[in-house]
Amino acid sequence: MSDRSELPADPPEPADIELGAARSTTQKLPFVPKGELAREQRERLEQMVDERTAELRSSNERLGREIRERESAEAALQHSVQYQTTINALLNLALKQAPLDVLLQRALDMVLSLPALAGSSAGAIFVAEQPGALTLKVHQGMSEETCRNCAEVQFGTCLCGQAAEAGELMQVTRMEPGAVLNQCGSADHRGHCCLPFSEAGEVLGVLCLLLPRNWVLAEWEIRVLGGVADVLASIISRKRGETKRAELEEQLRYSQKLEAVGRLAGGVAHDFNNLLTVIQGNVYLNLSDPDLPEQLRQDLEGIEDAAKRAATLTRQLLAFGRKSVLQSQETDVNTIVRELEKMLRRVIGEDIELSTSLAEDLWSTEVDPSQLEQVLLALSVNAREAMPRGGSLVLETSNVELGWADQARRAEILPGSYVRVCVRDNGIGMDSSLMEHVFEPFFTTKEIGQGTGLGLATAYGIVRQSGGYIWPESEPGCGTRLVIHLPRMVVAEAPRVEQRSQPAKNQVNTILLVEDEDFVRRLAVRVLSGAGHQVLEAANSARALEISREFVGEIHLLLTDVIMPGQSGNELAEQLRGERPGMKVLFMSGYTGDMLEDRGLLTERLLLKPFTPAELSDTVSALCKESD
After folding, report:
1. Residue span of the structural domain in which 408 resides
2. pLDDT in tens, 198-222
């Protein structure tokens, strides 16, 4: 036996053992041809390629989305920067001191220069200057025809008017020829975007953009325009506030100017009235002489006429300055107008047609009837001067309620119930520059020597002193409407008091006369003595007290000036009333109503200077005859 046969056999491999086991338990695998195997491998390979391609495609799509999102984010960031830059520029613009039209034009230029809105090459900004209407303020890229058609747009008409009425953005992508919204008449029928801007619910205006056809604004573009609209609203609101403040300041300056003239008038009134009293009194007494030469009589009558005109001028100045003494009472304005109508027909002439429109159940007002007649007469004469070739004059009355909205337009107005009186003509009218001075004293459009310029100034003073308001409304060539508002008077039922008349007393009256002006005192002594009265005269209150205490008889009347050196006339009267309870008191003064009111004398018997000797004598005699 060889060495190899003696060696032990190699142990079987585990795989061979398992294969053997498998062969012993399963069928024999079928034979697979090489072509079939290649086809399966190819299909498997194609499947793997498709799966990998799908994965790559998905990755590419995901990457594309990320790129687009990044680009969109970058664009949004860029738009945000542009938006913020524009808003900041507009906010800085809103703080600049410039006319409103200039600010709005710059704002429109900024909006149209936004890259995001590069498709809009034209636009306009409208402002609601009047209730329910838009006014074209600034524009760019719009034809002359469009600007003419869009100069005034009523709320609810055209797209801008509808946007203003609805208070929200409105857009059409194409304006069809003949469309109702196509008020602007743009030749290319572009799309329109109209965005209203408002504050506190009030529409202040509309931003209008003319866009290319079929252009639809994106949401972020609408947000940008919304921010622009807010800034435009703040610009207009600020400028309106500045304008209103300027108007109030001008009204204040005007009132202060009128008040200064009124104070000046009141300051000179006392001395001027004393002088006029002496002039008129002495002229009156000399004219009473039947043996007076005719030439001297004519000269004195000329002096008397000049003194009367001077007295009238003084009263007009005091009325303008609201310092005249008004005898206010419950008044029916309709009655005043009816009584004045006949005289007005003679005053204004036959070539002017006078008519009235009087409200039924007109409220009462508390005014001085004679002063109200003077006001209406002055306004009517002024209207006649505005109609040199004839025309029509209308006097109207009505009841009105003035509210806070009226006060917003005219700061001096207090809300409440008023009687409105309008004097309206169809004359030449006035422009705004003329209306600014119409109530100033001595302002007149007449030639030198043809007018004093105090008619409307006097009317202004009387109305304001009566607690009312007066202002003009006019345009050149459209006539003038002067509007008066007088406070309504709430009438309380007064108790009826039965008065019994006493027989007149025929006796010699003793009068204590107190006047610091020598000329006035001597004139009064001469007049009262000539009327049969016993006159005790004093130049001041101290001397009057001495005379009263030394005089043992009855003093029937104290006739005293109000403002005197030392003790005033009302203080003297109060002291003498305690010493002589039955004595009557008559005050006389050349001072104005406000000073007398401050001293509580408007309810006393008062004789205002200048007065004539007849007025002095009649007033004193009537007062002495009255029963206590």
Report:
1. 329-487
2. 888 888 899 888 777 666 777 777 7
